[in-house]
Amino acid sequence: MQLIPQYKWRNWNDNLACTADLYRPRGLHELREAVRLAGRKGRIRPLGNSCSWSPLVPTSGSLIDLGQLRGMHETSHDGAPAIRVEAGATVRDLVQFTQSRGLTLISPTIFQDISVGGAIAVAAHGTGLGTSTMSDEVVAMTLVDARGDVHHLSAADGELFDAARCSLGALGVVHDVTMRCWPEFHLHVEDRMIAIDDVLADLPDLARTYEFFELYWFPFTDRMWCKLMRRTDAPDPGASLSQRLKFAFTYACTFASCNAVLPLLGRVAPELTPAFMQLAPKLSMTPGSAVAPASRAFHYQRAYPRCWDMSYGVPLADAERAWRRTIGLIERLARAARFPVNMVVHARFIGPSAALLAPAHARAICDIEVVTTRTSRDADAFYDAWTAEMLAIEGARPHWGKYMLRPRDVRARYPKMDAFLAHRAALDPRGLFLNDWLEDAVFQLHP
Fold first, then answer.
1. Residue-wise pLDDT tens digits, 252-295
2. 226 and 361 share a domain?
3. Is 147 found in the same domain as 57?
4. How many helices (H) and strands (E) does the chain have?
5. Are 37 and 91 within one domain?
6. Around Cβ 253, how many Cβ atoms within 10 Å?
7. Does 133 share its domain with 161?
8. By residue range, what is the domain housing residue 81?
9. β pairing state of 62-65 and 17-24
10. Angle, CA 101 vertex, CA 97 and CA 103 arms, to 5°
11. Residue 49's closest CA among 1, 9, 97, 85?
12. β-strand partners of 365
């Protein structure tokens, strides 16, 4: 096991940092030893690929880096295929592994560089009302508690298992999870631009018609990019040369826009944002339809620029209201010559989650995220105002892994928070797996 004293950690988006002793275990035995050694000195936070915007990781104690725990193998659960994967593997690793075996995941994250352990810890997800979060696809897990003891958890452990399936790293360190998967299937994918009012009025019908769908809105445009997907028995024809060239062109435009043009625009000429947004759909998508394997269709996005990203899950009944509040706020700010959002507003739809702290716990949601460049002027002021707009919707809950403001205001929105904290205290009575943000801002353990 490698130990790096006083390691200088920074997250992927470069908005968080800390200095802490870093342990890099290479297996379950070393993970248990790392927990015991680190616990003698103080607090511990598990570390994945550092992709979170929220301060889940920073600590003055120790970090346990799971990056060397990347093993996986095929297994089964109740006679169906499953994959047992160590927490440090990335979603990309997992997708490639399932593809190579003719299998696929349902509701994986679009962003593939997230560690599996990190995705599970925050109940990250893809889209589809017939499914829920990646945490809900977990049927078993191996957890190391504050004493270094190993717990093999499954549905037989009842509510404790549902607490561990979205734990924010506060119950212990996850060594591995076993996830359900399915034989690969094909999707018929439609990309369409539809008028905003038509989309928002037809959200219930879209939910009934398409098993998987996503919405994109480029600010200051009058239509939404709708990605509509449903299963099909049609074969995958493979990409033609023209399709591959279009994909390469779209990728190049998206990469250049998100990593160079938009950051420059946000910094020096935000007033040009509306004009550029008119071009964005033409550069980012090609209307039409195609058939593709699910594992490829779910991961259509290839360019992942560093950005600001805040996300709220709202009950399906409030989806239109939440969208109109979001669009209205952006347009009101534009009338005051302020343009803090210069990338996209994106929505996915997922079914109820069993995980106690999942934003989708016990109800289906529309998850809306607002993405803007790191150089965008007034981004903090916008996100504060948007937080107020979302929190005015009674059932709205934030995504734990995205940028968060006012975390103290969301505790009461989780009906199982007290049950989660009781399980947390039983596994970690000394609070070793907390940091200041979790202890004070989220869990509010001190009056």
1. 777 777 878 888 888 889 999 999 899 888 877 778 899 999 99
2. yes
3. no
4. 14, 19
5. no
6. 17
7. yes
8. 72-183
9. parallel
10. 85
11. 9
12. 315, 350
